[in-house]
Protein: GDSL esterase/lipase
Amino acid sequence: MMVMLYTATRIGLPLLNPYLNSSANFSTGVNYAVSGATAQTASSLNSRLLIPLTTLSLDVQIGWHLTLKSTTTPPPNPSNNTSHDNSLYVIEIGGNDYIVALTSFLYSPSYVATNFIPLVIAKIRNATEVLYANGARNLLYIGVTPLGCSPSLLSTFLLGAKDSNGCLTDINTLSYNHGLSLLNLVNQLRLNYTDATFSFLDYYAAYTQVIGNSSSYGFSNTLQACCGAGPLFPYRYNPLLFCNALSTTTLDTLCANPNTFINWDGIHFTHKFNSVIFNLTVNAGSYLNPPNAFSTCMPSM
Structure:
């Protein structure tokens, strides 16, 4: 979602206000994202003995959009660029479904790939169909990152097999397969809804490019958290010592230079990394399908 916040800034729009801020101005866009949100509903995950961090799933967020749309006065000119039909709808979800399953220790990465990816993709398809039926014609789908490179999962599965970048091989395979399934969905949607535009941002490939060539992008630390538990813990991460206002360079619970780290707190990325991914994808058109997806809305520098 940070990629889209960068995009809004790049084209001259203010940062998107969160939907739950009921007093906010949503005339230039709205952010429905919720920390820990899943594509599957909480009840569906509960049936598999899983407890997500929040019950505010993709279905809930789509419901919020329909509520907002129904209470927003349409522009006097239907072709006005502020109309819902001309908006860009961004769907980036699924990672939390896989994380909650993996960290339960009930399901292996291969089981999650086989059984959870289809459920997540089905939810994304359903959300798309609801949005399309309500006027959405420009949609962007963002894949999940290589979850096996996350300090939170690396510190959980210390003995897991690693790839050349030091990331968990089987969990990254899961992430990669999610991206393949999501791109397949995008291609199906293009065939089914020819009057709409569907774009795909391959976050997995962009991330792999950066971590595999980290020094050329200015990163010297690719797997540890900058802020949080500090060097006494594997990957500088511990969920009981999460990054907070008391984290400090004095105790080394805050790194001296976040710009050299890919990861901020073990789960989220640094400002520098988000900027690099934005420039690689939206700005340059790499790892973007089609590559010119944003060419008509990006002002010249």
Summary: Residues 217-269 form one domain.
